[in-house]
Amino acid sequence: MRGMVRRFDAILMMGLGMAIGSALAAQEPGVRIGLTYTPGSQPGIYLVPVRGADGDSVRRIIARDLEFGHRLTVIAPDSGAVVPTGRFNYPLYARLGAAGVVQLVLQADGSALVTLHDVVAAQAQETRRFALPGPRLSPAWRLAVHGIADVIEEWVTGTRGVAATRVLFVRGGALWRIDSDGANEQPVPGVGAALGPAWHPDGRSIAFARMRDDGTSVVVHELASGEERRVRTGAPLSLSPAFSPDGKWLAFAAGESGTDLYVVPVGAWDEPPLRVTVGRGSTNAQPTFAPDGRRIAFTTSRLGRNEIYLTDADGANPELLTSTALTDAPYRADPAWSPDGRFVAFSTQIDGRFQIATISLRDRAVRQYTTEGINEDPSWAPDGRHLVFTSSRTGTRQLWVLDTESGRVRQLTRGAAARMGAWSPRLLSVP
Amino acid sequence: MSLRSLRQLVWAPAVLVTAGACLATQQDLRVVQGDVVAVRDEFRRLQSAERTRDSLRAVSLDSSLAQIALLLRATNDTVRGISTTVVRLRGDVREDLQNVRAQLIAIQELTGQSQRRIQELRADLESDALEKSTAPIAGAATGRDTARTSAPATPGPAQLYQMGQDQLRRGSGASARSAFGALLAQYPRSDLAADALYGMAEAYTAEGNATAADSIYNQVAVRFPTSERAPTALYKRATALRLAGKAEPARTLYRQIIQRYPQSEAAVLAEQFVGTPRRP
To answer: What contacts A257, CB < 8 A, 6 or more positions away?
Structure first.
């Protein structure tokens, strides 16, 4: 038995070959690797090759999700198809730099049995069975696989990943959606022309502004049924809807020559909306709720130029958030309150071009993230770490994803121009 | 001479006369005929001349009418132009007024921001003064004696207010209340006293203590009725009542805000809760 394990070790080492050489070279002697996650670190994870017809697809999707999460380092994700048998050789994985090993077995009933091994403790740490619904490689099936990656990330880091999410965006005036990894790019059925999409926190319905001949109206759309309700605002212009984090309120801008912010209870679409801002003819739009729902950040022109303001959700205590120097007059817009409540991301004009920045709610410190091209429309992922935004850096406007901790970016959409990305909450089922 | 001859003699002059007359009549007739022709020619000439004059008059009239039409068109164009100018001017004036209004609002906002900035600067100055008063005197540390320090100083009102605000932002309600309370205790006549009291109410709200918050909001309105915080404090009280289902007491408070502070933003917001709700 021991000889067989040794032979397997040799085969596995050969299979991994040069691909892991760099990982081994980077490994400093004496460094302890374990599943005690430290923020800022990226523990190594080895994904054992998966047997079965869809094994490679599953492994590839999960490896990519973990890489896009930026919290774990996937060791040799493209290495050979050698599937270990028998007892796990933890010291070998330790030598590869893995703190954990993920073993996934596709079951006959279509589910997947996933085990996370703690390499340091040399034992299985977590095991769970996941249903993989729908035809293989269908949107529902892929979403379920993304869900596995999110749970693995949570097992290791304590924070659930955001792979099982989607991004709504506007392309050619119509509403589209795309998976967080850039797959399944398609128009949202039954919606057509739309602007400024926003997700309900339950991920089952969305709101957006729809152009009419005589203005715009706010529409709430159920993704599963396609049922739509127009919010009765009574104003020719109604736009930039945003749901409160508890899903009970919908905020939007409405007016004619100027716009003010209003809120209406979700479902009570025929009730008169409650006024939140007193703009006196200025433009007040793009509301975004604080995670506790008690405050709202929004764009306003009441200073003569666009700035980001904060207000209590009942309209009291409006205050300027973004500008501290009275002499500078840039244009700031597109506020997005981070899910952890610590930052507001926004677009700010720097040297005549929009760039993505965040401002700390605690000390008002501003941090700029982009410099290349025109960058706008930030929207937070549910992890409060990643942002999707529109960038013209490749010549056409496309959606990109930014990791605010490392500053790394990746392109999400390709093809025709895309803008106004809105990152979904974590989706437990396909809407 | 026979009768017959006599008759002939009698008739002879008559015949002669008649013949002469006839001859004369024929001549006259010719003359008359000539006159008639002449008259007719004259009439024709006159008719022709009249026609010529008429046509000339018609041409002249047409020309006059055309000129009048042109003048009318020009007048219309002028009137239309003036009307357009008036509309444009009216639009310009309205736009100018809107711009002036927007600038006024911007000035108001900037004034508010300036006040906040001044407040922050005051806090910084107080902080600097505090640091200087507690810092060792230069050169003293080089001697054998320990550094001399002045008597312990306390933070100024702006600094205390800033501390309270910072704590409130950090979500530390108790610390915020402590800073605001120190300001009110040490500087009760400070121009930041109303803000500090309001801040205490906000801290209670953040801590979920609605009863204490309501009480403090009420104190803001009672103790500092001329403060900018007063209408907002009343609005907060009214909103808390409304959300608690106490519609009538809430409405009473909203009406108070509108009556006492009609120019405030809180009054504009309160209006929607006292009458028929208006759509945007």
So the answer is: A281, B98
